[in-house]
Design brief:
By secondary structure, the protein is mainly alpha-helical. Helices cover 76% and strands 0% of the residues. α12 runs antiparallel to α13. The radius of gyration is 20 Å and the shape is globular. The two termini are 12 Å apart. The relative contact order is 0.20.
Length: 317
């Protein structure tokens, strides 16, 4: 009975885990990009993820049953993220300063909260909104202090980053709607294949234009590419996105989205303890703002959602 009562914490634990995984992905991406182009890293990452999930499906380790189901919503959700989000984010980052990119991307929880009220009719308390803003403020503060808020003046880059925010927000909404008919594993499975097909088509087109199709898999010959690909393909793609979809299916998306800001804290700690980067006072202040913001968003969330979750699981058992 105690275990059942504690089931309400599973989505929160899941969110903390995927935020930690995503937080370390910045470091592994940095390592992988030393021997691969951005599109190669993304394409091979999702190809590995899709093939791995298919192998698990064939050996019945995971259950994926899409027969007779309307997968339009899942396909649209998967196109929003990873495809559109990764594309717009990479384009935006390449055209703007790191501080601008960090500030823009940190706004995702705010837009998700707004979209959840419009499309999902979720109720958002004023206290929750305040803590979401506090969490976002922590990310903004760290980026402003670390990068001195350098402005590129590239309006197109800002537009791309804004489109990335919209794509990610619609992914959250789509995943929530899809969870009514699909399991988190099934949603993740479709996401991996949509990502693999889309990004590898782009990579193939790029190689055809350059006349380098013969060296399509050349980056995989580097030992330095293996560990980043395994981390990004298995942990950051399969496991982390599964946990994202699981969390979204269990709690309001306005709450689940705010956990993404924990990635900033994890990436800072990874830089300090692994890459031996400096830790400044503003990192501590910003991290504290993020933690308090995440805690407040969840704590002051509607407790009825958790009661419904427990009641539903009781009926299922």
């Amino acid at each position: 009975m105690l275990f059942l009562k504690n089931k309400k914490y599973l989505p929160i634990i899941s969110a903390i885990i995927y935020s930690t995984i995503f937080g370390f992905s910045f470091m592994f991406s940095k390592i992988g990009l030393e021997v691969m182009t951005p599109i190669e890293l993304i394409a091979f990452r999702f190809l590995l993820a899709a093939l791995t999930m298919t192998t698990l499906k064939v050996f019945k380790i995971i259950k994926v049953d899409l027969k007779g189901k309307n997968i339009k919503m899942v396909l649209l959700t998967s196109f929003c993220e990873p495809v559109l989000y990764f594309f717009f984010e990479s384009m935006g980052i390449s055209m703007t300063s790191s501080s601008e990119a960090g500030l823009m991307i940190s706004l995702i929880p705010v837009f998700v909260a707004i979209f959840s009220m419009i499309f999902l009719h979720e109720k958002l308390k004023s206290s929750q909104l305040g803590f979401i803003v506090l969490s976002v403020g922590g990310v903004v503060f760290i980026n402003m202090m670390k990068n001195s808020l350098s402005l590129s003046g590239n309006f197109l880059g800002i537009i791309f980053l804004f489109l990335a925010i919209i794509a990610s927000s619609f992914y959250n909404i789509g995943s929530k709607k899809s969870s009514a008919n699909f399991t988190p594993i099934e949603i993740t499975y479709v996401m991996m294949w949509v990502g693999a097909i889309s990004f590898n088509i782009i990579l193939i087109a790029t190689n055809l234009i350059k006349g380098t199709m013969g060296s399509y898999f050349a980056p995989l010959a580097y030992n330095q590419a293996i560990i980043p690909l395994l981390y990004l393909g298995i942990l950051s793609s399969i496991i982390a996105f599964f946990m994202v979809n699981y969390t979204i299916s269990k709690i309001p998306v306005s709450q689940s989205a705010v956990f993404a800001n924990l990635c900033t804290i994890v990436s800072i700690l990874a830089g300090v303890f692994i890459l031996k980067e400096d830790f400044f006072w503003y990192d501590f202040v910003g991290a504290l703002m993020i933690l308090i913001g995440v805690w407040g968003t969840v704590y002051f969330g509607e407790r009825d959602n958790y009661e419904v979750l427990i009641h539903t699981e009781l009926l299922e058992e």
